[in-house]
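Structure (tokenized):
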């Protein structure tokens, strides 16, 4: 393997060096392209794939990601990168890290050698890639690690501004089927030997000789097919932790290697699918995240809570959402409901984030990424929203959410659930912490109770432990799940209580997320409202199909209004009915007239000042997204 790579680079290296020196001129043509990560501070419009320049200009694109060099460096895509750079568009490459196929690796090696193994020793495949699933490589395999380093050189030499890691979770996200190759077994032995003495290994796990211990054989002896069947919960936890930590170490080594090799500014992103617990620990090492997410038609799903969670996990970094390959298939065969996807651009912008515009995006079951087997958001549909975003870029950049309550996400508890289960399901998030958070934020938004996310890391996998962080200015903290054994009693919640902030446990929020029960919803929101005692910042007669997102900028407050009332039959949004809104905040009593901005028109609306810094407004009908600035 090493000889093959060395030969490849001896032939390619000289050309690449010359190509980079002569390519990548500035937009003005006045010199070489200057690499800088400053663009991370203000980007809003991201596009997937490799669209032609005309499409990118039409949608006002600033960055493309999940794009070039999927199968390594090539001169055609190098010319494409240089073309985009001349027009000021940044390029993040497509770096698949769990796909051993001929199209990714090449056909000159035995692809099965990279594959991880199941409990029976059989090679496993990445089944989410159809119709010909590639082998699922093992991140503990030194040959695959070597290949990743050599491949990342190609991306850098290809002049990219950022590298986008796909399948960031590694084998630690696929323990329902993989994780039992010899490289995994040897690395797990090393992990246990470093952490525990021989006496501890015997006492805790019954391991008499770590040098011969084989976790795969151990599970088979106990009739288990996955770590979930391990009768020793402590040993199961160590195996899951080992797979998560070893992957994190590999990604960190890749990033360090890449930065040293590049000798210039370069950013890194990751597909943090649904922000599940087995992916959150990678976010702190990334410069931005592009999370593949289940994106349903409105009004069935709201993602403000997801965006705020991502922002809380790693503040200050761009957050981007993208539809899953399953949802993209549904969109491509169900009457082209593109208006519903365009709305997600607005929802993301109102949440201080971005939504990745699909262009010839691969769909599950759709074959290769072609026009007939892929999903593309029409440029004019996307531009309807992106032009509005660009026109008002100051209201979607550098703003912070405002909330009456905070929804608490304890990573230690989420990780405890993950390790007890022993694996992640292929698609859906596991555990009441994650689903409880999602359910609670959805309910709060429907009830027009402004919220923020409060996140506490475990201080280990997520090195940032927020027990010393500044608490949000809220009246109530909601914990939407039961307390767990791993929770730190001296952590953030204890600090909140000491500061006089009320803490409320509502574990049924997870049940609401999975069932959508209206009875549970009414009970949970009634409890929250009782605990708030009427001390809220928003009072409105708007229906629950309207979303209201308050954010603060530099000395001002912005109220975003999102219309979730979408008609699949008409493929458009039903105009809202007029509604009354009272917002209570600081320094608002002098305002008597505000501007209501929508994509259809801009109009003045009357605002009546009230007591205690409150202001009352009548919001006229609109189609998709509007906002006022106070």
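Design, position by position:
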């Amino acid at each position: 393997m090493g000889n093959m790579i060395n030969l490849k680079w001896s032939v390619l290296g000289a050309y690449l060096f010359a190509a980079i020196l002569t390519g990548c001129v500035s937009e003005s043509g006045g010199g070489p392209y200057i690499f800088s990560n400053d663009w991370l501070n203000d980007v809003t419009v991201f596009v997937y794939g490799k669209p032609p320049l005309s499409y990118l200009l039409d949608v006002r694109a600033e960055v493309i990601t999940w794009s070039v060099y999927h199968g390594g460096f090539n001169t055609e895509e190098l010319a494409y990168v240089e073309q985009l750079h001349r027009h000021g568009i940044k390029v993040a490459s497509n770096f698949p890290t769990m796909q051993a196929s001929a199209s990714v690796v090449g056909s000159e090696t035995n692809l099965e050698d990279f594959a991880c193994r199941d409990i029976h020793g059989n090679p496993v495949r990445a089944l989410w890639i159809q119709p010909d699933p590639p082998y699922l490589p093992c991140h503990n395999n030194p040959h695959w690690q070597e290949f990743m380093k050599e491949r990342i050189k190609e991306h850098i030499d290809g002049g990219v501004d950022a590298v986008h890691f796909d399948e960031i979770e590694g084998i630690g996200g696929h323990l329902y089927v993989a994780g039992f190759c010899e490289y995994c077994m040897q690395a797990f032995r090393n992990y246990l030997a470093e952490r525990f003495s021989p006496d501890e290994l015997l006492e805790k796990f019954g391991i008499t000789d770590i040098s011969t211990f084989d976790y795969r054989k151990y599970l088979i002896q106990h009739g288990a097919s996955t770590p979930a069947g391990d009768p020793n919960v402590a040993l199961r936890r160590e195996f899951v932790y080992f797979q998560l930590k070893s992957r994190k170490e590999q990604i960190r080594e890749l990033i360090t290697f890449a930065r040293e090799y590049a000798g210039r500014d370069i950013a890194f992103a990751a597909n943090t699918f649904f922000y599940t617990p087995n992916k959150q620990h990678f976010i702190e090492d990334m410069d931005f995240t592009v999370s593949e997410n289940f994106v349903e038609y409105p009004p069935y799903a709201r993602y403000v809570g997801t965006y705020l969670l991502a922002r809380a996990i790693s503040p200050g970094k761009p957050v981007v959402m993208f539809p899953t390959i399953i949802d993209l298939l549904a969109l491509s065969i169900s009457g082209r409901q593109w208006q519903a996807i365009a709305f997600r651009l607005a929802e993301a912008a109102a949440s201080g984030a971005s939504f990745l515009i699909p262009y010839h995006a691969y769909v599950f079951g759709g074959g290769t990424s072609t026009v007939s087997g892929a999903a593309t958001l029409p440029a004019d549909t996307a531009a309807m929203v992106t032009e509005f975003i660009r026109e008002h870029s100051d209201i979607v950049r550098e703003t912070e959410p405002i909330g009456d309550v905070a929804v608490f996400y304890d990573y230690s508890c989420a990780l405890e659930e993950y390790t007890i289960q022993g694996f992640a399901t292929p698609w859906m998030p596991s555990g009441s912490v994650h689903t409880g958070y999602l359910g609670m934020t959805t309910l709060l938004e429907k009830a027009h109770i402004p919220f923020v996310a409060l996140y506490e890391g475990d201080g280990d996998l997520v090195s940032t432990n927020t027990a010393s962080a500044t608490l949000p200015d809220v009246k109530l903290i909601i914990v939407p799940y039961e307390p767990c054994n791993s929770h730190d009693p001296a952590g953030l919640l204890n600090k909140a209580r000491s500061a006089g902030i009320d803490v409320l446990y509502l574990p049924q929020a997870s049940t609401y997320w999975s069932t959508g029960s209206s009875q549970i919803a009414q009970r949970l929101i009634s409890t929250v409202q009782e605990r708030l005692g009427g001390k809220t910042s928003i009072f409105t007669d708007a229906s629950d199909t309207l979303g209201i997102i308050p954010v603060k900028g530099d000395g001002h407050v912005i109220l975003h209004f999102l219309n979730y009332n979408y008609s699949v039959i008409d493929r458009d949004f039903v105009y809202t009915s007029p509604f009354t809104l009272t917002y209570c905040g600081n320094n608002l009593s002098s305002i008597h007239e505000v501007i209501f901005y929508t994509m259809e028109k801009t109009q003045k609306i009357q605002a009546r000042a009230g007591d205690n810094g409150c202001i009352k407004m009548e919001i006229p009908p609109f189609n998709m997204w509007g906002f006022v600035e106070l």
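Reviewer-requested clarification: The longest helix spans residues 233-262. The chain has a mean pLDDT of 90.
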